[in-house]
Design a protein that fits this description.
Blueprint lengths: L1 H15 L3 E14 L15 E14 L4 E14 L1 H12 L6 E5 L2 E13 L1 E4 L2 E15 L3 E7 L2 E7 L3 E18 L3 E14 L2 E8 L4 E8 L2 E16 L5
Antiparallel strand pairs: 1-2, 1-14, 2-3, 3-5, 4-8, 5-7, 6-7, 7-10, 8-9, 9-12, 10-11, 11-14, 12-13
Length: about 240
């Protein structure tokens, strides 16, 4: 209980001592690493992702000593390589692509909430550089999927529903900002490392035909990490930061 009271008192003190407030909107394209980009169908955690994009909305307060405290909401989408995924599924089912029809959203989604700390350094004129680190949690979801295929003179349907699971996210990075209108409206470029620790989970798959029904569970343990490079726009108000 004392720990939570200390955290609350800390943020109240920070707000009282705040000189500047900032709200910002960012968009970025990740350079992805980890199992999420693997295309080996025998790897149960292969994600077949070849493209991703994301954005965030953040709010920060700055103290007299240029320390910033705030929170942000993140949203990301991870798009499967459709051709590679169909090829992998055909291989695992032992059929040709012409004997299969696939309906899928092909998109993993993530939404999360973070709190963090930063320090603002004035470089020259209206240019600032700001290292930061944010920590938080969110939900990562797999796409819905339905496959109809023909094998051994029989038609089968295989379905997967959207599955979500808890995720811890940490994003250390650095922001370069140009406050081009009276130091209030700013444009920025940021580079950050985005690490996600995903809870292990089981994905349910149902396969059925006119005379059969089978339900299986595959354990998923995705590893997702990325280098996010993006741009943003922000608005600062309140007292100006000390030079």
């Amino acid at each position: 209980m004392k720990k939570y009271l200390f955290i609350i008192a800390f943020f109240i003190t920070s707000i009282i001592n705040a000189q500047t407030f900032q709200i910002g909107l960012k968009a970025y394209t990740p350079i992805l690493f980890g199992d999420i980009i693997e295309t080996d169908i025998e790897n149960p955690s292969a994600g077949f992702v070849n493209y991703a994009s994301g954005g965030s909305l953040d709010f920060k307060i700055y103290t007299k000593t240029d320390w910033g405290f705030g929170f942000k909401v993140n949203y990301s989408e991870y798009i499967r390589n459709i051709d590679a995924y169909k090829e992998g599924i055909s291989k695992s089912l032992g059929i040709s692509d012409s004997n299969m029809i696939m309906q899928s959203l092909y998109t993993y989604r993530y939404i999360g909430f973070q709190i963090g700390v930063s320090h603002n350094f004035k470089i020259k004129g209206k240019f600032n550089i700001e290292p930061y680190i944010f920590l938080g949690a969110g939900v990562f979801t797999s796409p819905i999927e339905e496959i109809t295929y023909f094998k051994n003179n029989k038609t089968y349907t295989r379905k997967k529903t959207i599955t979500g699971f808890a995720t811890i996210e940490y994003t250390p990075g650095i922001n370069f900002q140009w406050n081009f209108i009276d130091e209030h409206l700013g444009l920025s470029l940021h580079i950050e490392y985005d690490g996600k620790i995903l809870e292990e989970w089981s994905e349910e798959t149902v396969t059925y035909s006119s005379d059969s029904f089978n339900k299986t569970y595959d354990t998923k343990d995705y590893s997702i990490s990325a280098v996010n490079i993006g741009i943003g726009i922000s608005y600062r108000f309140g007292k100006e930061l000390n030079n």
